[in-house]
Design brief:
The complex is a heterodimer of chains A (335) and B (331).
Chain A: H1 12-37, H2 52-59, E1 67-71, H3 75-81, H4 85-92, E2 116-120, H5 126-139, E3 146-151, H6 158-169, E4 174-180, E5 183-184, E6 187-188, H7 189-192, H8 198-203, E7 209-213, H9 217-235, E8 238-243, H10 261-268, H11 272-282, H12 288-311
Parallel strand pairs in A: 1-2, 1-3, 3-4, 4-8, 7-8
Antiparallel strand pairs in A: 5-6
Helix pairs in contact in A: 1-2, 1-3, 1-11, 1-12, 2-3, 2-9, 4-12, 5-6
Chain B: E1 5-9, H1 10-24, E2 28-32, H2 48-52, E3 57-59, H3 64-76, E4 80-85, H4 95-102, H5 105-108, E5 118-123, H6 138-141, E6 148-150, H7 155-167, E7 172-177, E8 184-188, E9 200-203, E10 208-212, H8 216-229, E11 234-238, E12 241-243, H9 247-257, E13 260-267, H10 272-284, E14 293-297, H11 306-312, H12 316-328
Parallel strand pairs in B: 2-3, 2-4, 4-5, 5-7, 6-7, 10-11, 10-13, 13-14
Antiparallel strand pairs in B: 1-8, 6-12, 9-11
Helix pairs in contact in B: 1-7, 3-4, 8-12, 9-10
């Protein structure tokens, strides 16, 4: 099963695909930060930079039929899941062409076509949704997986414990993907948890759980493939703790008083894109020319997405109160 | 099948509605604490586990946030869940899921994801259950756009509202008043679904509108009867639905009677009675012959002792006095 146990087994095409997705997230978010400074994007903007290997690796374990529940740091997940960069950018611009019609913004990307259920900005609040989506699949006899992403901060919430218990008790097909970037906003894991081994905590709910190097896209993919296979086979939920690190501040407003520059620099030595690129170079899977082509492709995609967002339309204010309740068709039935 | 009336309790009417929903739609299932083996903490779901099995009558751990949120997720996944919360006070443990997810996801997703979820819970006082099992938070919930709030007070509504709620594409909360479960009466054997959009005039009158809902409907009807004995013709409006409020029916009644008393088991400050009062003054101020009056619960956590609990709740004499004061001008 393990089609990607180490990068030595990746073909050139497979390797470049993974690198491309990580680069798409990184460059998109760098552009978002510039657009934020320029006032084009407002509200909260939580960047995923540094953590790209988790979304890129883990989402490769899913099929189109599976579901994804994510957090407010979800640009990368939405993008890799297949939401177009234009629709993501337009959403951040608050335009109708955005994937949530400009009603959600950066923290609330949704997309029915790719079964992407947000975009949840209450820490831990997405876990019950994932449990319910999985329950619906189980009750309807479908063999789909629901992948639920959340940060290690969610582990302190009561909902985490309730949901881990319920998913295990009812043997539900949930893949719990904990993105442990060590800080719940500014609160270090060791300052908020009596037991900092999160896989150990999860294992106490009688489900398979193990830590994974979240800075290594191949390790992430390998772990997610194994876990998703078990979940899909009816083995109940799995918990993966992806050990990763956020290179940027929590949001655009964070002065980063809670961690040292040195610590950030040390983690940057493990940059998932730089380290993966170096490995691919060693294996002669990419060279300067290939990288330049890749960067060029990504830059053009971002340029097109930004132009799409700029050209998008603002929803008429008369439509302000739409989508509070479902709109019924003329025959009285709901759509 | 005949239309002859049958005799049953409010509890049995609820159970009949649940049974019928489970029979009609394979996507419907019931989940909550002790809904299965125990038979429901108020025995509403008694017998349903045996009839429909543990998959569809699903006991949950004591995890309100998880199982209410799982109801939301299951609704997103194509099911038609009915989630039972034992009592309104416990629903506060799931408030995040109700307010931040159920009420928002349709809007936040730009109309992509609707949530056809029904949440049932017991509300209200009158059973000496003190300050953590007796409150009336339905007015609070009515503050939230994105959900609908139903308060069945009659046997017809107890039996008919559930199916209408399940057919609704959006989250619907049903508040069942605990003091009504043993209420017995006759309804048509084939009584069907009822609308969940309008208020109902339960008794016609011309001197004063008594506007209420849920558990206090019956006290209010009793007060109207006493007022009739004193020569005052009171109209009784049962709100039935607290969100969206059927404002036209309310205003039409007050336009007929020119006086309004609102009876609400919730607290007065910031409650649904205040909202109704505001709508009356906004809508038909110049029809009023007297200020709008309110009879609400005393602003204390519900006490245990019987005499104190009774004193805290809206009672018939207070409703009668409020109406008399408006009509005789001694308010």
């Amino acid at each position: 099963m393990s089609r990607a146990r180490n990068s030595a087994l990746l073909s050139r095409e497979q390797a470049v695909a993974r690198l491309r997705d990580m680069l798409r997230i990184r460059r998109l978010e760098e552009t978002c930060m510039e657009l934020y400074s320029a006032g084009k994007i407002r509200g909260f903007l939580h960047l995923y930079i540094g953590e790209e290997a988790v979304a890129v690796g883990a989402l490769r374990a899913l099929t189109a039929d599976d579901a994804v529940v994510a957090t407010y740091r979800e640009h990368g997940h939405a993008l890799v899941r297949g939401v177009s960069m234009g629709a993501i950018m337009a959403e951040m611009f608050g335009k109708m062409e955005g994937c949530s019609r400009g009603r959600g913004g950066s923290m609330h990307l949704f997309d029915a076509a790719t079964r992407f259920y947000g975009g949840n900005a209450i820490v831990g609040g997405g876990l019950p949704l994932a449990v319910g989506l999985a329950l619906a699949d189980k009750m309807q006899g479908r063999t789909r997986v629901t992948a639920c992403f959340f940060g290690e901060g969610a582990v302190a919430e009561g909902e985490f414990h309730e949901c881990m218990n319920l998913a295990a008790l009812w043997n539900l097909p949930v893949l719990f993907c904990c993105e442990n970037n060590l800080y719940a906003m500014g609160t270090a894991l060791a300052r908020s948890e009596s037991e900092t081994d999160l896989a150990l905590k999860a294992a106490s709910f009688a489900m398979p759980a193990w830590p994974v190097d979240g800075m290594d896209v191949v390790a992430v993919e390998d772990a997610a493939m194994r876990a998703a296979l078990a979940v899909r086979a009816g083995g109940g939920p799995c918990f993966l703790e992806f050990r990763t690190y956020r290179f940027r501040p929590h949001s655009a407003f964070d002065p980063e008083l809670y961690r040292s520059k040195q610590e950030v620099e040390e983690w940057k030595q493990r940059d998932p894109i730089a380290t993966f690129t170096a490995r691919l170079r060693e294996q002669n899977l990419v060279d300067d020319g290939a990288l330049a082509i890749l960067e060029g492709e990504v830059a053009r995609e971002i340029e097109a997405a930004t132009a799409f967002a700029e050209a998008g339309h603002l929803e008429p204010v008369e439509d302000l109160t739409r989508f509070v309740y479902s709109e019924r068709k003329k025959d009285g039935r709901s759509p | 099948m005949s239309g002859a009336p049958i005799r049953l309790t409010y509890r049995e009417a609820m159970r009949a509605a649940l049974r019928e929903a489970l029979q009609r739609d394979p996507r419907v299932f019931l989940m909550g604490e002790d809904v299965g083996r125990y038979g429901g903490c108020y025995a509403v779901s008694k017998g349903l586990l045996e009839e429909f099995g543990a998959e569809r009558v699903r006991d949950t751990p004591l995890s309100e946030s998880a199982f209410v949120g799982a109801g939301i997720g299951a609704a997103l996944g194509g099911m038609r869940p009915i989630v039972e919360i034992m009592t309104v006070n416990f629903s506060l443990l799931a408030l995040d899921q109700i307010v931040n997810n159920a009420a928002t996801i349709l809007h936040m997703s730009g109309g992509q994801f609707s949530i056809p979820l029904v949440i049932r819970m017991t509300t209200g006082a009158g059973r000496q259950l003190a300050a953590q099992h007796s409150h009336s938070f339905e007015g609070w919930y009515a503050h939230i756009p994105g959900i609908k709030v139903l308060t069945p007070a009659t046997l017809e509504d107890a039996r008919g509202m559930l199916w209408s709620a399940l057919e609704d594409p959006d989250p619907v909360l049903i508040f069942e008043h605990g003091a009504l479960y043993n209420m017995e009466g006759e309804i048509a054997a084939v009584a069907g679904a009822v609308d969940i959009a309008s208020a109902a005039v339960r008794r016609g009158g011309s001197d004063v509108s008594l506007i209420t809902y849920g558990g206090t409907l019956w006290k209010t009807l009793q007060a109207a009867e006493e007022l009739a004995g004193a020569g005052i013709s009171a109209e009784v409006v049962d709100l039935r639905v607290l969100r969206p409020l059927d404002t036209p029916t309310l205003l039409a009644s007050v336009e007929r009677t020119h006086r309004a008393v609102i009876i609400d088991e919730g607290w007065r400050s910031g409650g649904i009675a205040a909202e109704i009062s505001a709508r009356i003054t906004e809508g038909v101020f110049y029809s009023l012959d007297a200020p709008v009056a309110r009879v609400c619960s005393a602003e204390v956590p519900m006490p245990y002792a019987k005499h104190l609990e009774e004193a805290a709740l809206p009672q018939v004499p207070a409703i009668v006095a409020a109406a008399r004061n408006l009509v005789t001008g001694r308010g």
